[in-house]
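User: Continuing from earlier, I have the next pair ready.

Assistant: Great, send them over.

User: Here they are, in order.

Assistant: Folding the first of the pair now:
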Amino acid sequence: MKNRTSKWSILGTAMLVCAAVALAQEPSTSPGVKVNPAEVQKKVGTPPPASATKTSTVGTEHLKMTTPPDSASWTEPLDIDGNGQVDQTTLTWDGKDRVLFSTTSSTFTCNNGATGNGELLVAVNGTDNPQGRPPGSGFWLASLDKGQCGAQAQSLWGCKFDASGNPTACGSARLDNQTHDLVIVKAVPAQQ
């Protein structure tokens, strides 16, 4: 009887391990957008053009926040999300906080291979920023409609990234108007 109990115990343990491995390998049902911020990261050290105007806001509608009133703003064609398509992009340099913001409303690529349309904001920290954030690091935030990129409802989805552009934290997110940073409301594992 003792031998029989051991067999069942080993079999039960093996079944639990297999079930745990299977669950860990299930694909995530979380929404997601593919963003490669490399082009915006390259622009962070470039001074604003002479044609730049003064502004005190960044973005529109769902991705709007305030900046110091003497921030420089201009438009130029840029592949803001790294999908190979150049979009008309609004760039805003916040000289006080030393952050370059870029915004556009266009088509972006989802993690699941589909495409979505909406607002996208990418922010990159410049050198000597007063927050002490690594230069080149930053965040991006996309406005998703229900059904886009796996979103179950209209939502804001974003990632923080390091100076190499690699995501470090992703999830349902919001903008913090005081710190000009991204706040992850509900995190999911970052996809590399």
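And the other member of the pair:
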Amino acid sequence: MHHSSRGGQKGNAFLETGLIILPFLALIMAVVDFGLAIFLQSTCQHAVREGVRYAVTYQTASGLGHDASIRAVVQRNAMGFLSGDSGAGRIHIRYYDPVTFGEKTGVGSNAPGSVIEVSVEDFRWDWIMPLMRSRTPLNIIARSADRMESLPTGSFPPSR
């Protein structure tokens, strides 16, 4: 008697496909997950860099102080990741004395020659991939700094 083994081959192909497709999909999802994390870090870094570039020229948006204008620029360049009040709360603007590197606060902290640092801090990103999900989300931090320019008029806007 001759038995056909076609049914067995079909079953083997189905089983092999099932064994291959799950690790393959996990690998694809891991690539997407890490790609999104890198994209988010890059986007935040670009946003704070644009905020510093805006800050050193003492530009202000209509009706906003210097720091509020910088926050608006960072939010505009963050592709929606830092939108709303919760996003604005993660944007930090600090001024430093260029000699002592001590933090300057209050009126005149954004005087020409000061060092400005714009940062995004405490931005948490949950992993998408269920197998890689840990109890701790990814914490994104991005910083950029530059020296405040001097202006020909000698005046500068209030920092707040």
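Worth noting for the second one:
DSSP finds three helices and four strands in the chain. The first helix runs from residue 6 to 55.
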